């Protein structure tokens, strides 16, 4: 039975939070992306000529201050005046137990506030949504990007900006990056430079896009990076360390080295990304421990948080070992930049991080690792993946128990923040993604599946595990 591991994971999490194994409603078929809330998708260009230093400037189409080139790339020539219209449906079914708003007047976090209707397995609820007309509507460090620039169905929004116009860049190009990492989209404006390794999607391998990587401050080809491991999120983006040459994170593994070169390269790239996320999870749990202490958490939660950080060190060692094995050279983590990491989080920020990184991220990570173990069957890979799956399930249980404790202590504000975080994560996970390339490598024996298969499994886990457990914490299914 395909979903038996997910049902077992759901049962284990319900028991861990002290709920009956039958407390959640029976799972419904995986939900479809909400039609009212489309997400930006990275434009896909057809292969053309060899990469050039800058995108070609022929056959352009202007949209306010933005220019879309013939190859699909977008850059900002100057300030834009955008249509702030937001056609998402207004709130008509607020959730009595949660949600951000009931009317537009309740939304005070940005320009052109709208209280819009949303829906999930937790039931209908309303949330605040904002648009912009000009840069003046945005926070410092952001600019206004028009909806038609972001793609059909989108309204204007404020986007992080390292540049505000082509003239601000030495290269003369202030590009718009829309990065779909497999779980959601991240929009950024940044200068094109001669250090970039790509200029358009056609320069990249299948299933990768040319986007701005703010960790190294240049444009490069990136694929799915949403993988096993609790992320360290800073300013809305997962922070990881770059890979460097070192051997002290490695362990001996009884696995073949002599795989076909293309497959070995794909495996090395995949496991290096997983390793970086697992390594960053150590810091994420350190921050989580500090947050727990600041809130006066009981000792069992603190002990589990410390144990989880040690688990993540083991997971990172396994992943770096796999990456090094197939890369043919020793790899390990470099320094992890903590620039921008807040010294402390208030309660609602902590709840948002807990739900996003722990309740959802760890649960999906456990489901993913279990799926990979089921498909592997290799005498070495199978137990490695099953150990990771069991550890991630414990980490998920810790997150859910923490959420229940916070609800018991702080009540309604925690409930509202949790619902909002779930809605945001759900919309990101269900956002449309580019189709997988039919020639993309698939090697389940060694823990590698195409992006589409992984995302489909995460969506199933969201429906079958995450949302029923959330309902069990918030109240009986009949009230969801």
Task: Provide structural commentary.
The structure is a single chain. With 480 residues, the protein is an alpha+beta fold. The protein has helices at 4-16, 147-150, 261-294, 299-327, 347-376, 381-410, 412-429, 451-474; strands spanning 61-63, 66-68, 74-76, 114-120, 123-129, 142-145, 157-161, 174-180, 185-191, 209-213, 218-222, 233-234, 237-238, 243-244, 332-333. The strands form six sheets. It has a four-stranded mixed beta sheet with strand order 6-7-9-8. It has a three-stranded antiparallel beta sheet with strand order 1-2-3, with no helix packed on it. A two-stranded antiparallel sheet has the order 4-5. The relative contact order is 0.15. Mean pLDDT is 80; it is low at 21-63 and 476-480.
Into which percent range does the helicity of residues fall? 25-40%
Order of helices and strands: HEEEEEEHEEEEEEEEHHEHHHH
The average pLDDT score comes to 80
* Structural class estimated from helices and strands: alpha+beta
Radius of gyration: 22 Å
Low-confidence stretches: 21-63, 476-480
> Could you give the count of β-strands?
15
What distance lies between the first and last C-alpha atoms, to the nearest angstrom? 27 Å
Biggest sheet descriptor: 4 strands, mixed
The main sheet orders its strands as 6-7-9-8
Q: Determine the number of helices (DSSP H or I, runs of at least 4 residues).
A: 8
Overall 3D form? globular
Percent of residues in β-strands: 5-15%
Topology record:
Blueprint: H1 4-16, E1 61-63, E2 66-68, E3 74-76, E4 114-120, E5 123-129, E6 142-145, H2 147-150, E7 157-161, E8 174-180, E9 185-191, E10 209-213, E11 218-222, E12 233-234, E13 237-238, E14 243-244, H3 261-294, H4 299-327, E15 332-333, H5 347-376, H6 381-410, H7 412-429, H8 451-474
Parallel strand pairs: 7-9
Antiparallel strand pairs: 1-2, 2-3, 4-5, 6-7, 8-9, 10-11, 12-13, 14-15
Helix pairs in contact: 1-6, 1-8, 3-4, 4-6, 5-6, 5-7, 5-8, 6-7, 7-8
């Amino acid at each position: 039975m395909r979903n038996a591991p997910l049902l077992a994971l759901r049962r284990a999490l319900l028991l861990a939070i002290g709920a009956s194994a039958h407390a959640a409603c029976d799972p419904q078929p995986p939900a479809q992306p909400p039609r009212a809330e489309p997400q930006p998708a990275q434009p896909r260009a057809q292969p053309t000529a060899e990469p050039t230093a800058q995108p070609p400037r022929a056959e352009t189409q202007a949209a306010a201050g933005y220019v879309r080139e013939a190859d699909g790339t977008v850059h900002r020539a100057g300030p834009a005046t955008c249509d702030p219209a937001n056609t998402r449906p207004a709130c008509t079914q607020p959730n009595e137990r949660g949600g951000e708003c009931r009317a537009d007047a309740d939304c005070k976090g940005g320009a052109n506030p709208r209280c819009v209707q949303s829906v999930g397995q937790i039931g209908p609820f309303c949330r605040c949504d904002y648009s912009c007309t000009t840069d003046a509507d945005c926070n410092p460090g952001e600019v206004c990007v028009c909806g038609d620039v972001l793609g059909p169905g989108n309204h204007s929004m404020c986007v992080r900006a390292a540049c505000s116009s082509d003239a601000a860049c030495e290269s003369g190009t202030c590009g718009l990056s829309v990065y779909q990492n497999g779980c959601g989209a991240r929009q950024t404006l940044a200068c094109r430079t001669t250090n970039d390794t790509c200029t358009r999607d056609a320069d990249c391998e299948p299933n990768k896009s040319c986007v701005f990587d703010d960790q190294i401050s240049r444009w490069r080809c990136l694929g799915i990076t949403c993988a096993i491991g609790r992320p360290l999120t800073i300013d809305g983006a997962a922070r990881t360390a770059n890979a460097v040459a070192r051997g002290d994170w490695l362990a001996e593994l009884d696995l073949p080295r002599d795989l076909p070169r293309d497959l070995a390269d794909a495996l090395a790239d995949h496991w290096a990304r997983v390793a970086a996320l697992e390594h960053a999870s150590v810091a994420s749990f350190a921050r989580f421990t500090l947050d727990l202490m600041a809130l006066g958490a009981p000792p069992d939660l603190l002990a589990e948080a410390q144990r989880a950080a040690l688990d993540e060190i083991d997971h990172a060692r396994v992943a770096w070992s796999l990456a090094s094995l197939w890369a043919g050279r020793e790899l390990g983590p470099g320094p992890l930049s903590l620039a921008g990491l807040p010294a402390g989080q208030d309660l609602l920020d902590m709840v948002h991080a807990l739900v996003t990184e722990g309740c959802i991220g760890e649960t999906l990570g456990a489901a993913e690792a279990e799926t990979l173990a089921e498909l592997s069957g290799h005498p070495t890979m199978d137990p490695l993946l099953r150990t990771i799956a069991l550890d991630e399930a414990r980490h998920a249980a810790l997150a859910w128990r923490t959420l229940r404790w916070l609800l018991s202590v702080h009540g309604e504000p925690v409930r509202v923040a949790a619902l909002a975080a779930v809605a945001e994560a759900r919309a990101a996970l269900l956002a449309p993604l580019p189709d997988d390339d039919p020639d993309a490598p698939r090697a389940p024996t060694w823990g590698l599946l195409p992006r589409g298969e992984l995302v489909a499994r995460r969506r199933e886990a969201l429906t079958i595990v995450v949302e029923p457990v959330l309902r069990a914490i918030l109240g009986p299914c009949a009230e969801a």
